[in-house]
Each structure stands twice: as C-alpha cells, then as structure tokens.
C-alpha cells in the first residue's frame, strides 16, 4: 500500500497551555495533507476549484493514541480508502518521527464529496478524471 506523505514540524502555536498539541490541529493537518496532495499530484484540480468545483468535507474523524508536543517531527500518511459515486474517503495515519524510529500517534478519516457550484446551488458532480487517477496511485 503506497501512501502520500506530508511532513510537518509542530510549532508552539499548535499547542495548548498544557504543552501538548491541541486536538483540532489534527483535523487541520488532514486538510493540509489533502491540499498538498492536490498540489503534487492533481494540480489542475486547484484551477477547477476557482471555476465552480468544490471538494466538500462531509465527515471527519480522528482517534488519538498518544500526545504530540512542540518541535515533534510529524509524518502524516494518507491513503485512499474508498471511491463511491462522487465521494472520496481518505484514511490518515499520524507518525512521530525520531532517531529511534516512528511511533503511531493518531488515525484519521475524512470523506469529501465532489460538488459543483451553479448559480445559488451546489450540486453533486462526478470526481474529475485526473483526481480519480491520482488517488488510485495511493490505494
């Protein structure tokens, strides 16, 4: 199974008063990973987003297994879970990277629907072919 990988260094602004990463950042990182995937593997979709295409997040979840702290090196691995009609399910794994190896910190899941903005409505639209092709490389 091939995963798309996004590296991130945790900053102080992503932590709370206790010093660990605030839980909402994990979901934010899912979005960042998804955006970087588009930039790297389906850049034409970015243009389509300004022409009416919308990738609407319809559900998101995260299971927390351990804590992260400022300056932790984080590796987020994203794989394709499922493609069904106009919906894409992506699975995420969050790994802390150290000199001793990798430690699984959290697991996430996100479902996005491909929609198109037309006048005052948003209607379902098929997954663009280039996006579907890019995603199948990470199944």
Describe the structure.
The protein has 139 residues and is an alpha+beta fold. The protein has one domain (4-137): Thiol Ester Dehydrase, Chain A. The protein is 24% helix and 46% strand. Strands 1, 2, 3, 4, 5 and 6 form a 6-stranded antiparallel β-sheet that branches. The longest helix is centred in the N-terminal third of the chain and has 18 residues, at 24-41. This is Similar to thioesterase. It comes from Crocosphaera watsonii WH 8501.
- The outline comes out as elongated
Enumerate the spans where pLDDT stays under 50 for 5 or more consecutive residues: none
CATH classification, class level: Alpha Beta
Question: What radius of gyration results from the CA coordinates?
Answer: 16 Å
Tally the beta strands: 6
Instruction: Please trace the helix and strand order, writing H or E for each element.
Output: EHHEEEEEH
Quick synopsis:
With 139 residues, the chain is an alpha+beta fold.
Task: Give me the secondary-structure topology.
Elements: E1 4-9, H1 24-41, H2 43-49, E2 53-64, E3 73-84, E4 87-98, E5 101-118, E6 121-124, H3 129-136
Antiparallel strand pairs: 1-3, 2-5, 3-4, 4-5, 5-6
Helix pairs in contact: 1-2
What attributes does this structure have?
HotDog_dom_sf; 46% strand; Similar to thioesterase; Thiol Ester Dehydrase, Chain A; single chain; 3 helices; alpha+beta; 24% helix
């Amino acid at each position: 199974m091939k995963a798309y990988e996004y590296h991130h260094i945790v900053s102080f602004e992503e932590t709370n008063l206790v010093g660990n990463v605030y839980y909402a950042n994990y979901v934010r990182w899912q979005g960042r990973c998804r955006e970087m995937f588009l930039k790297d593997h389906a850049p034409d979709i970015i243009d389509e987003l300004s022409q009416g295409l919308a990738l609407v997040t319809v559900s998101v979840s995260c299971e927390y297994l351990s804590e992260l702290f400022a300056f932790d090196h984080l590796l987020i691995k994203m794989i394709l879970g499922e493609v069904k009609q106009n919906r894409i399910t992506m699975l995420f794994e969050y790994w802390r990277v150290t000199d001793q190896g990798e430690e699984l910190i959290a697991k996430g899941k996100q479902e996005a629907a491909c929609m198109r903005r037309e006048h005052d409505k948003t209607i379902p639209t098929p997954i663009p072919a280039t996006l579907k092709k890019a995603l199948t490389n990470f199944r």
